[in-house]
Amino acid sequence: MSKIKTFFALLVLSVFTLTLVGCGGGDGTKTKAKDEKIIIKFSHVVAESTPKGQAALKFKQLVEEKSGGKMEVQVFPSSQLCGDKEELEALQANNVQLIAPSVTKLVGFVPAFQLVDMPFLFASDQAAYNFYDGPFGQKLMRSLEPKGMLGLAWWPNGAKHFTNSKRPLKTPEDFKGLKFRTQSGGLLDAQFKALGAGSQTLAFAEVYQALQNGTVDGQENTFNNIDTQKYVEVQKYLTVSSHGRLDYVVLTNTKFWNSLTPEQQQLISDCMKEATAYERQLADELNNKSKEKIKASGKVEIYELTESDRAAFIKALEPVYKEYTDKIGKEYIDAARASK
Ligand code: LMR
């Protein structure tokens, strides 16, 4: 090969390599000299103004302060670095060291994570928090270790509600023939099927456009995600349904974790604990604020399910329990139901 050809071949190869590691680049543990600063890349898909976005920034501030600058946390919001699927791959490859996916996105690894999507399962936000902090939630959080991922905390967001562009959704029958975006297949597809609707899995970053161009008619999310993603610009109806939850697990990877000293691990755990308390306090506050903002915008027609509407949905969604109780594990469902 001539020199010029070799040069171009190398150029193409390096561009290709850069593209491959684009979702985070460099392995945080590989070439660390003894006193080199530890860089922790934290990638997530939502806006900075969300509970997850704010808590990630709080974690950054705490870690940098408490480590006296020996650790740096680089936060990448809004799928800037990685989208839904890529962030999981990037974490496993140690191209990023922290992510906080909605647990629905982890069902491909551990089906029990679909628990949060079980319709009308938890009695309240507090019941969900207590479940996550109790033995079943902790067991679930640790269940990813064989896949090289280590759960550090549960960051709940809150209840999901339906939006769509076609008609008010007051009864299960109103869903017939509509198509909804799901975060991940499986249980959520079954949920929409039980309501007579179709579904399509789309990455979070693709949802606004899919709603805008009619690829899907509707979606389900927390008030805060509906607000910060500006879905009201491309949706006409919102049903306050609280039919399921959207919650996160903060994950690191075992390779990165095991490269830290016990003191460094302790520092990260302590900061995570503080950031978690902050996230939980914010989740409620920001979802309420977003609900008021959505109302005040006048852009969507809002319907709140009554008790008897809820009963009709619970009945219509029974097939989901039939199909998924064993897949998730009855002991998890029972513990979630018993949680107060
Ligand atoms: C979604 O995909 O709707 C959510 O998981 C996004 C998020 O992380 O809150």
From TrEMBL:
Membrane-spanning ranges: none
GO cellular component terms attached to this protein's record: outer membrane-bounded periplasmic space
Keyword terms of this UniProt record: Signal, Transport
GO biological process, one term: transmembrane transport
Position of the signal peptide: 1-21
Family: Belongs to the bacterial solute-binding protein 7 family.
Official protein name in the record: TRAP dicarboxylate transporter, DctP subunit
